Amino acid sequence: MKKSSILVTLILASTLTLSACDMMGKKKPATEQLVNAIVSTMSADGQKVTDEQRKNIEDALAIQSAVAEAARKDKLDQDVNVKALISLQEDQVLMQEYMRKKMEAFKPTDTDLKAVYDKQVGQLSEYHFRHILVKTEDEAKAIIEKLRTGGNFAELAKQSIDPSGAKGGDLGWAPLSRWVPEFSAAGSALKPKEFTQTPVKSQFGYHVIELVEAARTPTDVPSFEAVKTQLVQMAKQDYAKKLEDGFKPKTETKAEAKTDDKAAEKK
């Protein structure tokens, strides 16, 4: 994001929050306070604010303050939609400040970082699969039954509607991210030479999957120490997401809804 855009965004947020405070009968902060608040926020983001930038902030605030005052004279601050937008902006600024404070206090330990590292390395691990893809569940079940009784996977793979069928269903080595989630989840749960005991449904049809060889980690994966700085950032991102997820409204499951309906019927 360009610095000018950041300035505008920060100034806008501060100005709208100021308006919200004004509407609630609070004392309007002095321009100097607003400038210091914006500069402080920018500094916290690692930006060095020059004297010229500070002057630009002051000028922008002066213009917005004058326009806002004109809007008040026209009683725009009494408009229902404007009040709602001001309230929304105030909540957004408060949320950002809350998150900033929490993130400042969060200090990931080496144990936290190792967990992030292992997760990332796990995503890089490569698996060697072969599979047979068919259109119907019954076809997949029939193939699984033949494999249980000693059927040859490569021969049965000739029935596959996937191009890999011509190679005995062999998909070669690749990370789990290469395949759809259903395939990856079922395949990674297998031991070498094992095949799925039930058909695996995906958007493409029904799979019968075999893990040919155990997962391997690429040899060029950097060491834990080499990427420790990046891991800190990843740990912070994970922490921020957990914080936000903790405030998400809990959705009622279908089972809970049915239970509530039955309870209501008994009353």
TrEMBL record:
GO molecular function, one term: peptidyl-prolyl cis-trans isomerase activity
Signal peptide: 1-20
Annotated InterPro entries: PPIase_dom_sf, PPIase_PpiC, PrsA_foldase
Pfam families recorded: Rotamase (PF00639)
Region Disordered: start-end pairs: 242-267
Alphabetically ordered keywords of this record: Isomerase, Rotamase, Signal
Catalytic activity: [protein]-peptidylproline (omega=180) = [protein]-peptidylproline (omega=0)
Record EC number: 5.2.1.8
PpiC domain mapped to chain residues: 124-213
Family named by the database record: Belongs to the PpiC/parvulin rotamase family.
Protein name: peptidylprolyl isomerase
Organism: Formosimonas limnophila
Lineage: Bacteria, Pseudomonadati, Pseudomonadota, Betaproteobacteria, Burkholderiales
